[in-house]
Amino acid sequence: MSHGIPRGSGVQPATAEDRQKELQKIKDYKGLVESVHLRIQERQYTIDTLDLTTKLLRWNPEFYTIWNHRRLIMRHILSAGSGEDGQGFKTSHDASVNIISDELSFLLPLMRKYPKCYWIWNYRLWLLEQSTHYLPAVAGRQLWQQELALASKMLSLDSRNFHGWGYRRTVVNALESPELQSDGSASTLTEQEFDYTTKMINTNLSNFSAWHTRSKLIPKVLTKKQADKVARRKFLDEELELIQRALWAGSEDQSLWFYHQNLMSTFDPKYAADSMAPDLSGEERLEYVTQEIGRIQEMLDGAEDCKWIYQSLISLSILYKCLSGKWPVGQSVIGHWVDELAKLDPLRANRWADLRRDLGAP
Fold this sequence. Notes:
This protein is mainly α. The protein contains 15 helices and no strands. The two termini are 56 Å apart. It catalyses: geranylgeranyl diphosphate + L-cysteinyl-[protein] = S-geranylgeranyl-L-cysteinyl-[protein] + diphosphate. It holds the Pfam family PPTA.
């Protein structure tokens, strides 16, 4: 029995017929590989060769050399169809759109079947980059916009997939590039993407990638809005309220505390210049830190076994002392927090012992 399921009798021995079929598959595969290699050596960058690589990649998408062969063929086909003699210019670009679209469609079943095969994703991005190079801006942008919709679909199925978030950022960067604007100017999807992180966070608070992306977008959002000191402070207050609601709902979630820590850097003089509110006075920073210490202390009631609360209280107390020259609470209280942290996180006991000594806690 394994997990309550009876074990089977094991793998049945292969029959002579099964072995013969397997040997034939191996022979066919090796013959296909040799045929593709030979055609590439002879520079037969044709549709027939492309079809052979299609068959081979459906068989084995991890064969990265064949993806490189396919790039050579596609580059040859696209280059041949992008002549600039003025004859059939529209037709050649329409053909290129169809070729690239067909390639993107060819990849979709492979992506579904082998979602973690990086060669497929690398080739797909390369293909989209070719659309930027060979197609008019309007046509290329349309393909990239379709890719953004695909990224949204992927993240709706697996909202915390950091590869998916990274892929989405790559697509957004391409859509914002001057090469994909009909007038050659830069475009921005900053606010749209910021709203997207809000949507994904509201769907699932425990989404490290969404919080991370949000932290990177905030400076861009404020710059785009040309936010003054008042607007920046209002924005900061809204983010603090958002993370506080999230922390009350999931105080054990590490991703929430990382975002909270990022917001707290706004009040640290070492990082203030690059923060969302660089013009806060020392008194205003101290006021915010005091407020956060009070809020997080309230969380301890009923959550005494959450190590993240103690870590945050200690970090904020150190920041408070940096700003004011004194501790926000008695050192014995801070020592108690460190002791509780050591109990909850025994694997780092030496680290917490060093911290206790450095803080001079009794």
